[in-house]
Amino acid sequence: AHKAGLDKVDKEHVNKVITEASKGSAYYKNQQYRLRAIKNKIKRFKYRIKQFRANTVLWTKTYHDVQRRLMWFKNERSFKRTWVHVDMDMFYAAVEIKDNPAFGEVPLAVGERGIIQTTNYIARQSGVRSGMPTFIAKKLCDKLTIVRPNYVRYQEISDEMKTILREYDPDLESCGLDEANIDVTEFLMKNNLNHAMGRLWLAQRIRKTIFERLEITCSVGISCNKMMAKILSDFEKPDGCTYIDYKLERVLAFMKDLPIRKVPGIGKVIEQILNNLGIFYCSQVIERATEIFITFTEHTFEFLVRACLGISRNVHEDPRDLLQKSLSVSNSFKPISRFDQFKEKIKEQAEELEHRARSAGFKGRS
DNA sequence: TGCACTAAC
DNA sequence: GCAGGTTAGTGCA
């Protein structure tokens, strides 16, 4: 329900339909199994924290160590650069509607192989959303129109969008077809726009240009680093634009009431773990940093604390790190049991993988 | 290094 | 009857 466009939905009804359709399925059983594993993990975490608290000397020492680390992170905060995150609204569905306006009047979903990838906002009102199996989506919305994705077309539109954005930052970093990050600092400086009003003006200008050239709306976040810009782009979806002024108290006030799940990189599992420790908002991660430190690895602790302070990278990735690192092929199939069937399956997959690796000019390393 | 798991689109 | 595909990364044995 954290996804945009779901605020007017009858959640109780939606949950009932999903539960009805789910129970007994292999998928559901697997989910239950994984949920139990997470619950066990949480139990162990809670026990570890209890042990730690019981040892006052150790707890105090850890507390001060953690506070020292927090100071370190706070020194990393920088308001020197400005990033814009652009996120196209319901992208695949929007392209389908652009090419066939009639789709804009009906509940529409784009999907294949039994899974919905994206939906327009009419469909979202019935609780239909990305990642949902089509048979459940149909139960929620019997008039739902489902079309197969046309990736060639989406790529075309995506390229057009990125061409527009490269006027502001030639080193644009993209994530998927519908999202991109640009560092607009130089553009702002050159045009004497590097102040609150100027930044907001630029964000709106980008949105306007994209809409005029593509007839598709987007949501934009503009802030002092990539992560903040991304969080903000989601804040007023769809067709929205959010900016937070570069003042420490403004950033902290925003993070204070921000649900942890809104932080990119915190998914279902980490959310569950933190919720069980009584942590729901970003500010609580900082308040309870000692417990976080004990619970997670050092790496995850640093990620969580930095993110919840609103601190993240504000310079471009090394281009070498942006090159593709791996390639894989996977698909789902009905249960099989005979050895020759497995052998055949693996052969098919391997041949497909080989084919793609050759086209991409990849060699196997191991 | 290989595998399980998490996360994102 | 019916629950995807692809890439990146972490953590552990």
From TrEMBL:
One of its GO terms (cellular component) is nucleus. GO terms for biological process: DNA repair; DNA replication; error-prone translesion synthesis. Residues 83-267 form the UmuC domain. Residues 336-363 form a coiled coil. GO terms for molecular function: damaged DNA binding; DNA-directed DNA polymerase activity; metal ion binding. Keywords: Coiled coil, DNA damage, DNA repair, DNA replication, DNA-directed DNA polymerase, Magnesium, Metal-binding, Nucleotidyltransferase, Transferase. Belongs to the DNA polymerase type-Y family. This is DNA polymerase kappa. It comes from Euplotes crassus. The lineage of its organism: Eukaryota, Sar, Alveolata, Ciliophora, Intramacronucleata. The chain holds residues 236 to 601 of 1092 of the full protein.
